[in-house]
Amino acid sequence: MASLPAEAPIGVFDSGVGGLTVFREIHRALPGESLIYLGDSARVPYGTKSPQTVVRYSLEAANHLMQRGIKMLVVACNTATAAALPTLQETLPIPVIGVVEPGARAAIAKTRGRVGVIATEGTVKSHAYRKAIHTLDPNVEVLECAAPLFVPLAEEGWANTHVAREVAEVYLEPLIDAGVDTLVLGCTHYPILRGTIEKVVGDSMAIVDSAETTAAWVKSIVGDSARGEAEHHFLVTDAEERFRKIAAEFLSRDIESLELVSL
Amino acid sequence: MASLPAEAPIGVFDSGVGGLTVFREIHRALPGESLIYLGDSARVPYGTKSPQTVVRYSLEAANHLMQRGIKMLVVACNTATAAALPTLQETLPIPVIGVVEPGARAAIAKTRGRVGVIATEGTVKSHAYRKAIHTLDPNVEVLECAAPLFVPLAEEGWANTHVAREVAEVYLEPLIDAGVDTLVLGCTHYPILRGTIEKVVGDSMAIVDSAETTAAWVKSIVGDSARGEAEHHFLVTDAEERFRKIAAEFLSRDIESLELVSL
Q1: Residue B43 pLDDT > 80, yes or no?
Q2: Which residue ranges does chain A devote to CATH 3.40.50.1860?
Q3: Tens digits of residue pLDDT in A191-250
Q4: B24 lies within 8 A of chain A by CB
Q5: What is the DSSP string of A210-254?
Q6: Residue (of A24, A28, A29) closest to A12 by Cα position
Q7: What CATH number does the domain located at B10-98+213-260 have?
Q8: With 90 as the cut, is the pLDDT of residue B97 above it?
Q9: Among A100, A161, A252, B184, which one has the highest count of C-beta atoms within 10 angstroms of its own C-beta?
Q10: Chain B contact for A239 (CB, 8 A cutoff)
Q11: Residue of B nearest to A146 (CA)
Q12: A100-210: which CATH topology?
């Protein structure tokens, strides 16, 4: 494992814009750290693609960020974490963390025994959350449900509409009926619909947003080590104006340094 | 232009499953023709990607189909037609047809003067339909609207739900209010939502599904020339089981010959 130059940036990687929810929390927890965000917008979404393809895309993204001198990689995409985290950890000479284990730890801390996970088709099929939760506590019951329409609803700005509410009811009612007490938002897009999701589940469930717990974990690894001026740089593989627009909504500010790259 | 061996297959290319609506109509019009369908499921959707990226992906798909000995290429994706048709026509030594011009011709034949087009963001931004319609008749008014959520609703099997109906109302009300008399389904996914769309627009608009008119155009080029046993072969770039399931719903039959390829 290489040493971590304190001024080097932390790399944050996602298939598109969803990882910006993680980026936002890392910035909040570590305002002095420089961050480079890479969104693979030319190949988004990852959630419907095969694990083999997601591993290949993730390695290409990680290698690009390594060339930019990152000291640590955060895989801010549940699908990529579920499919590619072990490969990335074996391949890269820097710390690599994903979003599944922090989410699983937070769920264990909150649950009274029955956890629901909503995620993409790819993440659900991998059973990444069930495995991570059962590693920590095999007695917790885990129900995993795909909620694929949440991604386009978030990306298209429909998060707070009546349509989103109705879709949320269809996805969440089986979990409510099953008596789930803690709900993991197992896709980095989903925190954008958190308000709508909370309206549907009411007080019946505690919500786990892995962005916050991932940021806390990042902080525990890098410490408060940053010394220089913090810089934020954004890379996308396609459609930069679309990214700029959506990112401004996610982050509640305009992004300045945006670059189109080819992986 | 090379001659067309009668037994050679026709290639049909789309970013994913939407082009199956065109495939179905070509098969209906020309039951004796062999067809090869290529769905670029590793990089779907194209509708939110830049024209440059869509051109590159389309050329890779077309080159792969050329190696399979196709006698003609049908670009069964509006976004790819809008971005890449001229490049494909210049590059390939076989006839290449898209779905925009057939749709524009059908709209001209039906309209009393005001045409609405619903399509992906990429197709709307290209103004491909407006240009194609105005080439035929500059006096027709053309209103183009993006309807991006229709694609995931179709792909996820929500076409006939109350949610789809509500989304359709949001997208179509401006066109109803504007007095559109003819509506072009400018994305090959949208015919799957035709029933829902018809419920919303009622008798106020004639619907143009470019799959049917494209098939008629293909027939006019190849004639009734096929002699051998017609074969259907499907190629995808990722997630073949997902494709198999959705294709069975689209085509109302199981598909037998499915192959995973890398472009």
Answers
A1: yes
A2: 10-98+213-260, 100-210
A3: 999 999 999 999 999 999 989 899 999 999 988 766 667 899 999 999 899 899 889 888
A4: no
A5: HHHHHHHHHHHHHTT---S---EEEEESS-HHHHHHHHHHHHTS-
A6: A24
A7: 3.40.50.1860
A8: yes
A9: B184
A10: yes
A11: B156
A12: Rossmann fold (3.40.50)
